[in-house]
Every structure is written in structure tokens, then in C-alpha cells.
Amino acid sequence: MKKAVIIIRSNLYRKTVEELEKKGFYAFSSVNVLGRGNMRVEFSIADGSLLNDIKGTHRFMTKKMIIVYINDDDEALLAETVIKLNRTGQQGDGKIFIIPVNRAVRLRTGEENEDVLV
User: Fold this and answer.
1) Would you give the DSSP letter of residue 106?
2) CATH code of the domain in which 111 resides
3) In whole angstroms, what is the distance from residue 113 CA to residue 104 CA?
4) pLDDT tens digit sequence for 42-101
5) Number of domains within the chain
6) Is the CB of residue 4 less than 8 Å from the CB of residue 80?
7) Please, are residues 12 and 41 in contact by the beta-carbon 8 Å criterion?
8) What is the Cα 2 distance to its own chain's centre?
9) Average pLDDT, stretch 39-43?
10) In the chain, how long is the greatest CA-to-CA distance?
11) Could you tell me which residues come within 8 angstroms of residue 45 by beta carbon, excluding any fewer than 6 positions away?
12) How far is Cα 92 from Cα 9, in angstroms, rounded to an integer?
């Protein structure tokens, strides 16, 4: 089992979530986050578009973070889906982190590991 942490532009969030659901990824958490990368780039907070009149700034940007727990076999499908929808070729497209999960327990039933995903 793995944990996928997906950080994307806010304006692509709804489209990404809809496509993840179509691919069978129904259970996830999401939160608004502020962050920045290594590059100096300016974005509009409202829609994530580049602003041409302000250069050289390096501030936190509003993003969406989606957390999805997946079976090992679903890693490629999840990554391909997110990349297809969010890669614009511009700075600030986001990132995906895939992290191994050592143990998971469904509190209500006591089910463990992959059984908590169904």
C-alpha cells in the first residue's frame, strides 16, 4: 500500500478530482495549502495563472493538496492521470510524492492494510 501526496494548482483541482473518481480513486482527503518551490515565479492567487507585470518575487502560492491511499498496483495509473491533467510545462505545475505505507487499520472494524482500501 502507498500514500500519494499530490500538490497541484487550485484551478485544476475540480477537474483532477473528477478524473480520479472516473479512474476508481474515490477515497481521498484534500486541503488548501500554501507553498513554494525553488524557482522565483509569480502567480495569481485566484487562478494560478502567471502574472507578467511582477518579476523576481518568491512568495507562497495557494495550492491544493490531495492525499490518496492506493494499492501498489495503482501507482502508475494515479500518477499518469494526475500528470496528464496538470502538466502545463510552466513553473508551479505541482508535484506527486509516492510514499510506502507500513500499516493501516480501519478503526471501526479492525481491518488492516489493503483491506482498509475497499
Assistant:
1) -
2) 3.30.70.120
3) 5
4) 555 555 555 555 555 556 788 999 999 999 999 999 999 999 999 999 888 999 999 999
5) 1
6) no
7) no
8) 14
9) 59
10) 56
11) 61, 62
12) 7
